[in-house]
Write a structure and sequence with these properties.
- The structure is a homodimer.
- With about 325 residues, chain A is an alpha/beta fold.
- Chain A is built from 10 helices and 14 strands.
- Helix content of chain A is about 35%, strand content about 25%.
- In chain A, the strands form 2 sheets. In chain A, strands 1, 2, 3, 4, 5, 6, 8, 9, 10, 11, 13 and 14 form a 12-stranded mixed sheet that branches.
- In chain A, strand 10, helix 7 and strand 11 form a beta-alpha-beta unit.
- The longest helix of chain A has 20 residues.
- The first copy, chain A, is globular and about 50 Å long.
- Chain A starts with a strand and ends with a strand.
Chain lengths: ~325, ~325
């Protein structure tokens, strides 16, 4: 049974293990600095499908299937699927899992969805709601761009603060059975809106939320950045992660060498992604590719995964509403 | 700690109480057969706001504030807010709670969202993730229609099987402290897609999912329809609820007098809503208005609330994808 620690953090007392993980990405992501850490790199942006929406669904399903298989399980062994994405009405996730015949809980946390799924899923396994579940998230550049910004064929110019929506998906299997990685703490985030209204500067909109959640997490667990091998936000990218460092510096806290951001890690600066990567799939694939592999290998033992999301819609931005950020965090421990 | 019962159902062993509830609706809903059961009826469809999206947010926030106040609490006493709606990127719920400073978990379950929130929230309270939380859902006719179908000014014709998106919101507070209503069981639903592609016949798309979830719930708990004072789906409306009765009749099971549907209950047939009501707010307001009041008064003691949703987007429908239905159910017991 979970215990509340401090103001915000939930300490999982029943061991919740991250049993397996999988990341599936597109060609551009596969050519970046994290190449070799993904389970599948598809050179076909359509993933064999007719539409971008089905392509995203196919990619997310591939991540789920791979993660489930790596746990030595079949889809039918899952008690629950938790998933979300950026598409209107989260259709990427529905289409991905519609044929699974597994209870499905749809989440919406924008780019924080992988962390939200891990957080909700960990609480479920801790509380006995599920013994075995899968949490997944995805985004697809071609499906997202035309929905949020411009049709791809229009060739719209991007601002320097803009981020590149990753074509990527990640999935994890959480279980009560011991494995090499344990989820020990969960901190659900609140929305923080400092009235950023520029949809091409998501990093600035999300950094204050990441600061809020991480501050609570450190205070509640009586830890400091240096206690972790890796503190990973996703995906503030270059602009937002710089701001986050600044916000902590004002408190006299140096995030140090262990801090990095999934939106910075996924692409090389030469890949023309401006401030860096974004999209639910960005942090999902960096976590489920590189980070969890290194935890399994023992290279990382104590990790904070803090997914960040910008809660806006094209309609709300056109109406001049501020873009609220949110950040959900989980603490992972190598066993 | 929750226990799994049978194949799908979760039995909550730590008492989870529904401490208070509130329903806020628009004028049309306030003039229907359930008038007098809502906390607030607004004759201003804009709820004092400039846009339909902000109107929906204002209405959802009003439901949350009212429910929290009726529990004798303040917003700051909540450990968690769970909410969702129909708008792209669930912006109605983000805008509703952005100033609460409370951890926020965004859900997407289309019209099943109120049930999804109750189900996830109950598991969280049972498992110790939260002591006190609020789950909310909303929909607004004017915001939804232009997003899903046509601009209102276009005056598009509706088919007889079409449903009317309710302008309505509901919120409940769940706690560990005893009250008059307990949540005893939760059954998360799977997606069921029988290839209905008509976005004006959601009832037909959702009925098979309701049948699937309720069948599992009856089997897992060894109960039958006659064991409940009220079995409430929401919102299959006239077409879908008729189909649900038919599906159970094939198994020799009569849903009987205790079965009804929120989409049927919310409006009079004279209100020109064709097959009935729909939208996250429809089942939310019927539950949080009429049903929970009657449970508190002791008139209903054993209730199944089975929220149904159609997982589609205008894009997926235009692309010819089938509309998957989903149904999450909770069992409520008068104490």
């Amino acid at each position: 049974m979970a215990k509340r620690l401090g103001r915000r953090t939930i300490s999982l007392d029943r061991p919740v293990y991250l049993s397996s993980h999988a990341a599936v990405v597109g060609q551009k992501e596969g050519e970046g600095p994290l190449q070799g850490t993904f389970d599948t790199v598809s050179n076909d942006t359509h993933f064999g499908e007719k539409t971008w929406e089905l392509a995203e669904a196919s990619m997310q399903r591939m991540a789920i299937d791979t993660a489930v298989r790596k746990s030595g399980l079949q889809i039918s062994d899952l008690d629950l699927l938790l998933a979300g994405d950026l598409l209107n009405q989260c259709i990427g996730s529905s289409l991905a899992s519609v044929t699974t015949n597994i209870p499905f809980v749809g989440l919406y946390g924008a780019c924080s969805t992988m962390a939200e799924g891990l957080a909700v899923g960990s609480c479920f396994v801790d509380g006995g709601t599920a013994q075995t579940l899968c949490a997944a998230a995805s985004s697809h550049y071609c499906a997202a761009e035309r929905q949020y910004r411009f049709p791809l064929a229009y060739g719209g110019q991007r601002t320097p603060t803009a981020q590149w929506t990753a074509t990527a998906a990640g999935a994890v299997v959480l279980r009560t059975q011991p494995s090499h990685i344990r989820v020990t703490h969960v901190t659900f985030g609140q929305m923080v809106d400092l009235d950023v209204t520029d949809a091409n500067n998501m990093g600035a909109a999300m950094a204050p939320a990441a600061y809020d959640t991480l501050s609570h997490l450190f205070a509640d667990t009586h830890t400091k950045p240096a206690d972790y091998d890796r503190i990973l936000t996703g995906d503030l990218a270059r602009v937002g992660s710089g701001l986050l460092r600044e916000l902590f510096q004002r408190d006299g806290i140096d995030l140090g060498q262990s801090y990095d951001d999934c939106g910075v890690l996924l692409y090389d600066t030469e890949q023309d992604v401006h401030a860096g990567g974004s999209g639910c799939g960005c942090s999902a694939a960096v976590l489920c590719g590189d980070i969890l592999r290194r935890m399994e290998q023992g290279a990382l033992r104590h990790v904070i995964f803090a997914g960040t999301g910008a809660l806006m819609s094209p309609t709300s931005v056109q109406q001049g509403q501020g873009i609220a950020g949110i950040c959900h965090a989980v603490v992972l421990e190598g066993v």
